[in-house]
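## tool: complex_structure
## caller: assistant
## args:
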Amino acid sequence: MSKIKCAIIGPGNIGTDLLYKLRRSKVLEPVWMVGVDPSSEGLARAREYGLKTTDQGVDGLVPHVKADGVQIAFDATSAYVHKDNSDKLNALGVMMIDLTPAAIGPYCVPPINLKEHAGKREMNVNMVTCGGQATIPMVYAVSRVQKVKYAEIIATVSSKSVGPGTRKNIDEFTRTTAGAVARVGGADQGKAIIVINPAEPPMIMRDTIHCLTVDEPKQKEIEQSVRDMVAEVQKYVPGYRLVNGPVFDGHRVTSFMQVEGLGDFLPKYAGNLDIMTASATRTAEMFAEEILAGRLSLDAVAA
Amino acid sequence: MNLKGIKIKVHDMSLRDGMHPKRHQITIEQMKTIAKGLDEAGVPLIEVTHGDGLGGASVNYGFPAASDEEYLRAVIPLLHQAKVSALLLPGIGTVDHLKMAADCGVTTIRVATHCTEADVSEQHISLGRKMGLDTVGFLMMAHMIEPAQLVEQAKLMESYGANCIYATDSAGYMLPDDVTARTGALRDALKPETEIGFHGHHNLSMGVANSIAAVAAGARRIDCACGGMGAGAGNTPMEVFVAVCNRMGIETGVDVFKVSDVAEDLVTPIMDFPVRIDRNSLTLGYAGVYSSFLLFAKRAEAKYGVPAREILLELGRQKMVGGQEDMIEDTAITMARERGLLKTASAA
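## result:
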């Protein structure tokens, strides 16, 4: 079976972990790794796996897109350069999956709205944040049963798994996640809190999701919906686990999650990073399946 | 110890840290009355926000009786000499909250991070400084790391623009030597114009002794709470600390009798329970656990039947940091299930 060819922009930890996941995919084939530093370990590693590489950024990839048949690109760089990267590749008909907080395209949380995005032929989708991927499915699990007036998530991540970019602009995490908790999760209002814990050995990512329902919670239905949703997420993040709950306390419904990564390139405790690369891979696979089945063709977009 | 003639600034916490034992339910009227009393007693700086800082209103930490903005706008115009500060924890509050607080008229912004995570404060500290605010870096749970590491983190905050750095004993765990080592190391390593501060909790009854140790080591800002109203067994009691300073010749500018009247007539009467050392708050100090966890652990005890003390000890063992209040119920459920106290706790 033929595969859809992909490029990864950003050969850091996230980009390299993505590479490992894409190499296992039945429908995706990573062919290019794009960086800006000739001495990058990530570029060297990608070359070992047989990928073509450039240290000239997206401009180094652009001349090869057509000849090498690249149809999907992942951006694991930073919000500052994402729009530029996306415009250049969209113009060549390459669909962009955005792992930065730039969010110029619609938010994508696979078990909730991936099908809808594929149906709309979106050329740029954004993977929200790690905290968003880990919690929004559980907000949706409640909001698809009954109206949620307020949802709040607390993501606790190990100090070692939080990179300098996130640290420099932690407000971006709080704002973006809160917005997506409401919009994609289906709550009238959203709030997000992030806590960084430096314990050694590093703690595995934990996430708590509080929903306040308008009416009395329908306990049985919510319990079933939560179980179903956990199973959906486990399809692409096997280490996604409901530790406790859902707890019902008046109109409050709370689920306590743990997210353990696959340990591909990133350590297992960094479930927060793994769920981003796993969600991005899942998203690309859905688009790839549509392309391979002839239901979707990607057209060039004027920037 | 001769500290005669040293001038320090005391910073009142009863309307911010004191929000914890009040479950953030201090009314605007109570805030106004107490703040006016503190102002008249000569307290130079008063903190007013949700107990968990700007933006703390949440299921996780508790919804307050009024918003940060409502409290600030009610209190600030009433004060003659006292200034008002706001606390901000990156990850909870954002620069939008900071701008709101500045617009309300706060003169001081205190940006708090766990003691090892100072680099998440860059955007907030640099903005505070750019806006001309008195900008404080507040390193919480400072007992968890060695003085040299604390210095590294403090230097980051100083480099972002903080003009004052705190060693914060959030767990009330430190003994005077621990305070001397940390505040002394900060004093030695930071720029001479950078002020050093100390924030204590009274969980081991060390609030006053620790604060004096901090002054002796070079700290010139000391957090106290009138009536001791703060998380855990409370903060360093303002009236006691001021009295001790008077005896030692340390100048605070605060009237000891007036401030003890505020404590007795205004603060103590609004407490929902005596803020004091009991077996649970003692455990915070003994095991090094974040003081604000106290009431959450007591609620979890009531709901799940696991003693609060044991929950707190477990949180300490798991090295939980400030802000992880959600893990208290989670830990209590897990402990209750292991003890056969829960039959229906569903976990997939």
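## assistant note: Chain B touches chain A through 33 residues (CB under 8 Å). Residues 292-338 of chain B form a domain with the Helicase, Ruva Protein; domain 3 fold (CATH 1.10.8.60). Handing back to user.
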